[in-house]
Amino acid sequence: MTLEPMQSNKSSHNEDSFRVRKLEISDKSKGFIELLQQLTVCDSVSDKAYEERFRQLSSYGDDHLICVIEDDWSGKIVATGSMFIEKKFIRNCGKVGHIEDVVVDSSTRGMQLGKKIIEFLTNHARSSGCYKVILDCSTENRVFYEKCGFKQKEIQMVKYFV
Q1: pLDDT tens profile 49-63
Q2: Which of 75, 89, 137, 144 is the least crowded, having the fewest Cβ atoms under 10 Å away?
Q3: How many whole angstroms separate alpha carbon 139 and alpha carbon 143?
Q4: Could you read off the pLDDT of 104-118 as tens digits, one per residue?
Q5: Beta carbons of 83 and 125 less than 8 angstroms apart
Q6: Cα–Cα distances in Å, from 3 out to 70, 85, 92, 113?
Q7: Chain centroid, CA 140 distance in Å
C-alpha cells in the first residue's frame, strides 16, 4: 500500500476540496485506474470490464466498499481504499473488515488523505458491526498505520497463482 506521511505542508488546496465518498461508475474517467497503477500491477481496464466489475461489486452492498477522494479543484481521483466484510462463525457469527488497495496519488501525498481513507473505512467496519479491522502493509508503511491506531500482529503469508 502506498501512503503519505502524517504531516502536511501543501497549501494549494483547502481541506474542503478533499471529501471521502463511495466509488462512482464515472470515476474511471477521473483517473481511478491510473491511481491504482501507482499501487501495484494494474493493466488498463476497458470501459465494459470496468462497468461489469463496478456493477458486480455494487451488488454486494455494504459488504464491499470502495471509497475515493476526488479533488474538487481538478476533478481527479487522488486517493482510494477498499474494504470487504468477512462473515464468520467464530465470535458469535462475528464480522471482520479487511482493508485493501489503499493508495494516495503521488501529487497529493502529505495532505492527510490516506488518514481520511483509513478513518472512513474503519468507521464503516465499526458501523457494520465488525469486531476488528485488519490489513496487510509494507514495512515502509507500518508507522503510518500505527499512527492510525493499528498494531502489528503475527505475519503475512501469500501464494500467487499468476
Answers
A1: 999 999 999 999 999
A2: 89
A3: 8
A4: 999 999 999 999 999
A5: yes
A6: 16, 22, 34, 9
A7: 17
